Amino acid sequence: MEREKIKYTDEELVKRFQDGDERAYIELVKRYKDRLLNFVYRYLNSFEQSEDVVQDTLMKLYTSAHMYREIAKFSTWIFTIAANLAKSELRRLKRRRVISIHSMGFDDKEYEIPSVDYDPAKETTSNYGEKQIQQAIDTLPDQFKTVIILREVQQLSYEEISQILGISIGTVKSRINRGRLRLQKLLKELKEQ
Amino acid sequence: MDCYSFDRIISDYIDANLNVKLRQEANEHISVCPRCKEKLSDLKSILSELSSLPCRETRPDFESRLMDRINQTKEQKESRFIRVFQDYSRPISVIAAVMLLVATSIFVYTSVVIPNSPGSIPSAEIRSVEPKKSMTMPATTAANVRSTLVSTTNESNHPDTNKVETPNYNKQIMMVNE
Ligand SMILES: [Zn+2]
Prior knowledge:
The complex is a heterodimer. Chain A has 2 domains: 1-115, Rna Polymerase Sigma Factor, Chain: A (Orthogonal Bundle); 118-193, Winged helix-like DNA-binding domain superfamily/Winged helix DNA-binding domain (Arc Repressor Mutant, subunit A, Orthogonal Bundle). Helix content of chain A is 73%, strand content 0%. Chain A is built from 9 helices and no strands. In chain A, helix 3 (22-44) crosses helix 7 (142-153) and helix 8 packs across helix 9 (169-192). Chain A starts with a helix and ends with a helix. By secondary structure, chain B is mainly alpha-helical. Chain B has 3 domains: 3-52, no CATH class; 59-120; 124-154 and 167-177, no CATH class. Chain B contains 9 helices and no strands. Chains A and B meet through helix 3, helix 4, helix 5, helix 6 and helix 7 of A and helix 1, helix 3, helix 4 and helix 9 of B. Zinc ion (ZN) binds at residues 3, 6, 29, 33, 35-36 of chain B.
């Protein structure tokens, strides 16, 4: 049974689900839950909230699968939903952070999401280490952050990113180039601190 | 090629997206510019770290929580009225519905058969309209009850799941500041 399922492409599974086969939905959930989580997690830097966003994304898949048309790859379609939800969630988190800063009476202009488990101590296994890299990602402006995660973490093609974000391939290329350089600069600054 | 130009093509250089001529120029620049050479190797190592960041996994109960949410949504959408009729363990509901049907039939009967008196024009007007609706009473009632049930339960449960953002909407949302 399990081996039989693996033969289906994502697009075939959605088709089956659209035709009422719920097992196809569950198979899509299994295929995508962790992939989506890793995308959203790098974007939000919060496990709990990221899992919630992935849940919402997969709920939308359940309730709106009929809106999927085979003109798009399923992966780009589901990533688009996740990216939109993650973006709203990040805005909400930032707003909350701003409110809490104000209510505490700090006049702090910096309201990036705090990385809860950030440890400034440099990790020895690599050049920068996950925490420092994550902190740099958090600091990237949104337009660079999304493309960098989709490209470098998810290893998606320019074409796929262009479809997910609804921007031209030229814009994707330029954002990737600028995003990479920005990230490098941020990491350098973090290292020097 | 100068350092500024190299910065602009550094990504394409890494992704091997440059034509032969540009690549050659870039190589020549790196061979004489320690700053860009260093920058390139540093960026390459950052990108390789990014691609090998540890993966997070959803918690083991992720799927069961998702299915619970889905089942909740399903329950809202299912017609409870129809289920009541299918469920013989709830005869009271059936009796109530039958009584409603009988009451409506009497209403139809009196309004159609008993002639209207001149002093009761307002009620006669209502009665003359009502019979048409009453003829289809079981179906309309079912629909009414169902929609009431659905609308009340929807309000209490995950209001945002009704908002569907699909890729089509995405362009407007994502195309900020380029
Ligand atoms: Zn140079």
